[in-house]
Write a structure and sequence with these properties.
6-stranded mixed sheet, 8 helices, alpha/beta, 28% strand, 25% helix
């Protein structure tokens, strides 16, 4: 006997906000007289929202009111009533989770959640959700290969080392596509503080593709160090996020690199460098030319939507009638 649960996943990230609605088929795996042992047997995504830019009041404040309106409109478009949703997760990720009013965002959205997981995601949780949502965990389990998954978003890159389908460790680097922003003419409008000492550009400067490429190469070198493909220097520690512990570089002889996140969409595409008004296109192309793609690599089955799919389809762990946040290996 099986039941169908409606699930919602919402990812409020540094650059983008997106939602999915899915149906989870839940089956009781226990014998007739045993305590119910419920497992998710199937996950079907029924609706995907467009990818929106996360509404901001300024660089330090998320516009909680605009975000609430966005979510309400997506419920309407999907034809879903709040009271008909059984489970899910609202996850605030990346640099957005550090914004000064992250609590206000949670409060503004909490009544959409019911019995959901509602959390400001640390790098550990975000790494797990992205690796699962991108299919990297399934890929490792299916092939038996060791995978280093890199979810490269707007402000951070979340790392997950996966062996035999199990996530062994996670990490997070300040490497992302929105660390530098430009107007339509290439004038710098924002430089992230994490680039202090690594970038010669400042707001108001007219940037060239070559200057942006230099910054992208530095960021890519940090990713190569994390993958054990380049000798470690203090750069790796400098770009490790405050919230994440040290990520020991991988030393695997045969390692598959897997990518998701918005920058992953730029790895195999030739895009104009000002396509999104940030460093993303050049960073993606630099990664494609780097040691990260010199061996076996793969793009996730989901790229920009990896975390939201992880939140909507993998965040519920069911046992009897209890809902809880997901563990690494469930």
């Amino acid at each position: 006997m099986s039941d169908i649960l409606r699930s919602v996943g919402l990812d409020v990230g540094t650059t983008s906000t997106q939602m999915i609605f899915s149906e989870l088929t839940v089956e009781n795996k226990a014998s007739g007289f045993a305590v119910p042992e419920m497992e998710i047997a199937r996950r079907d995504i029924r609706y995907r929202s467009p990818v929106y830019f996360t509404p901001l009041l300024d660089e330090s404040h998320v516009d909680a009111g605009a975000l609430r309106e966005l979510v309400a409109e997506e419920y309407r478009k999907a034809g879903i009533r709040r009271e008909s949703v059984d489970t899910g997760a609202i996850i605030i990720t990346g640099e957005t989770s550090r914004k000064e009013n992250a609590r206000a965002v949670l409060d503004a959205l909490s009544d959409f959640a019911g019995e959901f997981v509602v959390a400001t995601a640390g790098p550990d949780l975000e790494s797990v959700l992205a690796a699962k949502g991108a299919g990297a965990v399934d890929y490792s389990q299916r092939t038996g290969k060791t995978v280093l998954h890199m979810d490269i978003g707007g402000g951070t890159s979340n790392l997950a080392l996966i062996r035999d389908g199990k996530i062994e460790r996670t990490g997070c680097l300040n490497v992302g596509g929105r660390l530098l922003k430009f107007d339509g003419g290439g004038t710098v409008t924002y430089v992230s503080p994490v680039l202090d000492g690594l970038c010669g550009l400042k707001p108001g400067d007219k940037a060239s593709p070559g200057q942006v490429k230099t910054v992208a190469e530095i960021l890519t070198q940090a990713l190569e160090m994390a993958a054990g493909l380049r000798e470690e220097t203090p750069l790796l520690e400098q770009l490790t996020t405050r919230e994440a512990g040290r990520f020991d570089p991988c030393r695997e002889k045969e390692l598959v690199i897997s990518f998701s996140g918005g920058v992953a969409d730029c790895i195999e595409k030739e895009l104009p460098w000002l396509e999104f008004g940030d460093i993303g296109p050049i960073l993606g192309q630099t990664i494609r030319e780097s040691r990260l793609c010199g061996g076996e690599f793969t793009l996730g089955s989901e790229t920009i939507r990896a975390t939201v799919i992880g939140a909507g389809c993998h965040s519920a762990q069911l046992s009897g009638c209890q809902n809880s946040s997901d563990s690494h290996n469930s």
